[in-house]
Write a structure and sequence with these properties.
binds uridine 5'-triphosphate; 281 residues; Spore Coat Polysaccharide Biosynthesis Protein SpsA, Chain A; 13 strands; alpha/beta; two-stranded antiparallel sheet
């Protein structure tokens, strides 16, 4: 049976975890020395878009789960992010925690346990860039009422095995209530095409579940497996966000994101147009 906590007003989310400990193998060789999250959409790295999204949602504490070879992210925080107009150093803080080895997204989240305490928190994967009229995580916070929540989008059936896929118990306009969730199912086994993308609001009880979790798909500690285990006690809500998501962990997705952002810039849109005009048919 699914149990939900009933809250009258949306809950305040003060903390966000940015898991930036992955290897980024789909971008080898560049990610051997440059963190994937420092790849750019034009003049800003992916981590800045993620940071601006969290800042725009009123989040004040930014926790980076980082690892060997990723210190340029910390340098970027010092040199750029702390100097942004909306960043108030008397109220906001940065924390860094190391993930000794890349054991999966669930393990990365677990690494930040001691910085979160007993409160719900956000998770943003910077390699999922979401173009939104304000802030995707901000929109989720407005609809958050105490269950575990993950952003979802519809994907083509052939792509389900790249994602965590929710099985729908109940579907509303903005949300679905999940009956179960399955990490990277085969096309035959997938129960729907509602795929989880890199935005979550999680209850702190997830840390106990992650701690005891056995490795799953790809021999990694999967966040999806923890969400599945918690459905009977905490429920799982899939949130249909506004805006467009780009998988910048893949070369195709990063290219699309660059084209998307450029096409909204008058000068650069002209460059794209000219480029295509000059390509022989
Ligand atoms: P991905 O599944 O894209 O893995 O991680 P990856 O290693 O970064 O990239 P590929 O698949 O090898 O190309 C999704 C998010 O989870 C983080 C990544 O940094 C990314 O933001 N992550 C993943 C960690 O922080 N630690 C891990 O052990 C794995």
């Amino acid at each position: 049976m699914v149990v939900f906590m009933h809250m009258e007003a949306p809950m305040k989310i003060r903390k966000v975890i940015f898991p930036v400990g992955g290897l980024g193998t789909r971008f080898y060789p560049i990610t051997k020395v440059i963190p994937k999250e420092m790849l750019g959409i034009l003049d800003k790295p992916l981590i800045q878009y993620a940071f601006e999204e969290a800042l725009g949602a009123g989040i004040k504490q930014f926790i980076f789960v980082t690892r060997h070879g990723k210190t340029s992210i910390e340098d970027y925080c010092d040199h750029v992010l702390t100097h942004m107009e909306r960043f108030d150093s008397s109220k906001c803080s940065f924390c860094y925690v190391r993930q000794g080895e890349p054991r999966g997204l669930g393990h990365a989240v677990l690494c930040a346990r001691h910085l979160v305490d007993n409160e719900p928190f956000a998770v943003i994967s910077a390699d999922d860039y979401i173009s939104h009229s304000s802030s995707c995580i901000g929109e989720m916070i407005k609809h958050y009422h105490g269950s575990n929540m993950a952003a979802i989008m519809n994907v083509p059936k052939k792509d389900v095995s790249k994602y965590g896929i929710m099985d729908v118990e109940k579907e509303n306009d903005k949300t679905i209530i999940a009956r179960s969730v399955d990490e990277k199912p085969s096309v035959e086994k997938a129960k729907s095409t509602h795929a989880i993308v890199g935005r979550y609001i999680l209850t702190h009880e997830i840390f106990d579940v992650l701690k005891n979790l056995k490795p799953g798909v790809k021999n990694e500690i999967q966040l999806t497996d923890a969400l599945l285990q918690m459905i009977p006690t905490h429920g799982l809500v899939g949130f249909k966000f506004e805006g467009k998501r780009f998988d910048c962990g893949s070369q195709e997705g990063l290219l699309e994101a660059i084209l998307h952002v450029s096409s909204n810039d008058k000068k650069l849109a002209g460059v794209i147009k000219k480029f295509y005009e000059n390509i022989p048919p």
